[in-house]
Write the structure tokens for this entry.
Amino acid sequence: MADRPKIPPLTLDTSGYRCPLPVIRLEAALRGLADGAQVTVIADDPVAVIDIPQFCREAGHAVTRLESAPDICVFLVTRAAKSV
């Protein structure tokens, strides 16, 4: 069986949104994705640096903060397996 081409992660730009909207928009985006799918999240809310990783830990999603410009947080979130 041939390998499927790698699909780039979805990008979710939450710039301009304040707590709790970046997390709410991330949760909605993840809900429609398959297990293991990735979302790149861009946020300029200073609280997002705490809120997004906390949400991911609680929901079981993997999260990595990527390098970004000052005053902007960029995260790569990998969707956890859906519970049965």
